[in-house]
Every structure is written in C-alpha cells, then in structure tokens.
Amino acid sequence: MKIIPPSFEFEPICGNDILRKIERAGRVCYKSEDKITETSAQKFVAVLIKHGHESVLEHAQITARVVCDRGVTHEIVRHRLASYSQESTRYCNYAKGAFGSELTFIKPCFWAEDSPQFALWRDTMQHIEQQYLALVQAGATAEQARSILPNSLKTEIVMSLNLRAWRHFFKLRCAKQSHPQMREIACAMLQAMQQAVPVVFDDL
User: Fold this and answer.
1) For residue 111, what are the contacts with CB-CB under 8 A and spacing of at least 6?
2) Residue 4 burial (C-beta neighbours within 10 Å; 0-12, 13-18, 19+)
3) Could you point out which of 57, 62, 68, 105 has its C-alpha 20 to 30 Å from the C-alpha of 96?
4) What is the dihedral of CA 194, 192, 59, 37, to 10 degrees?
C-alpha cells in the first residue's frame, strides 16, 4: 500500500501568448485591432475582466493533469464546460504488476499522521487493499472488484478548461466552504496559474 500527497502539473503554458490571443479576439468587439502592440495585451485583458467581459476568456484553454483522490474528482467533473480523461477503475487492475500489485491512496490533509483518526483511516485502507487483492485472486474482474474501492483511492484526471471556466472553478473550489482536500489541490493550482498567466487570475 502506498500513501501519497495530491499533485498536479499543467501542460506547457505561455502566458503572454494566451494574453495576446485573448486580446486579438477581444479587440474584434471594439474594432480596435489597430491598437495592438507588443505590450498592450496585459492591460487590455485586465480591462476586460474589470468590466465583466469574461466571454472573451473562452478563446484560450489550459490543460492540467491532477493526481488526487476519487472524492475530489467527483467534485471536479461537476464543472460542465470542460473536457476530462480519468484513470478507469474498470480497466485498471491494481492487482497486476503494472501497479505493483498494490493500491495507492491520497493522504488526508485534515488528520495528523500521529492522530487516532489517521491510524483508523490507514488500517481501513490496508484492509480494503487486502480484500481487493483477494477478490481478484478469487476470480473477480477489475470492474467487479472496484465496488469496494474507497474515495481515498488515488486517481489521475486530465482536465481541459477555457480560462473563464478556470476562473469559475477557482472561485468555487478555493472558497473556504469547499471540501478541505478540494481546496488543498485547487489553491495550489490557482497559485501556479497566477504565476503562469498574469492578469487573468490576479483578482481571485
């Protein structure tokens, strides 16, 4: 059994290219293409966002690969304006050598490792792993054995959203009332996005 923290990575992002793409699309609305310069995109996009003209942000898309537990992905895929590809528990047989014949779980961020709650959680995950492997050994297929897999199971999901949808995602998933494990990964992603794409996420 493995216990790992959540993680993510974005496909290569060129923030300046994204801003220029948004500017080219946005200036069509005002027929102000003649005002495009090497340095005009950042200011123009900032004005768009300030005035709520966020539909222009839909012209740019960013893809992320997220490693988290399945409970978190249940929340992620509720965002409609996105494309998703997720690790399948129907076709991934964790009893096989490709997975080290073991299950991998995401460490809960809300329990210290020396707490009684974490000990109970860890023991439960170990028991589930044992029973999963026993089911497969007894002839169960991966899609049958998955019925006992918990939310804590590690999964990977590739998600592609346009920038407007990313803004909506961060507004909801970084909010204080969001689930702690959702906030753990979403807030880290927002910080990375703020560095990669200036202006678009600075106000969040």
Assistant:
1) 117, 118, 121
2) exposed
3) 68
4) 50
DSSP code per residue over 164-201: HHHHHHHHHHTSTTS-HHHHHHHHHHHHHHHHHSTTTT
Q: Is 20 a catalytic residue?
A: no
Nearest by Cα to 13 from 193, 199, 203:
193
Q: Give helix 180-196 / helix 163-173 axis angle, nearest 10°.
A: 140
Buried b (16+ CB within 10 A) or exposed e, 113-147: eeeeebeebbeebeebbeebbebbeeebebeebbe
Q: What is the spatial distance between Cα 87 and Cα 110, in angstroms, rounded to a whole number?
A: 25
CA–chain centroid gap for 191, Å, is 13
Q: Structure tokens of 50?
A: 């300030």
- The pair of three-digit structure tokens given for residue 198, joined into one six-digit string: 């200036």
What is the model's pTM? 0.90
Q: Write the DSSP assignment of 12-48 as a string of letters.
A: P--HHHHHHHHHHHHHHHHT-GGG--TT-HHHHHHHH
- Which candidate in 27, 70, 173, 183 is catalytic? 173
The DSSP bridge partners found for residue 106 are 4
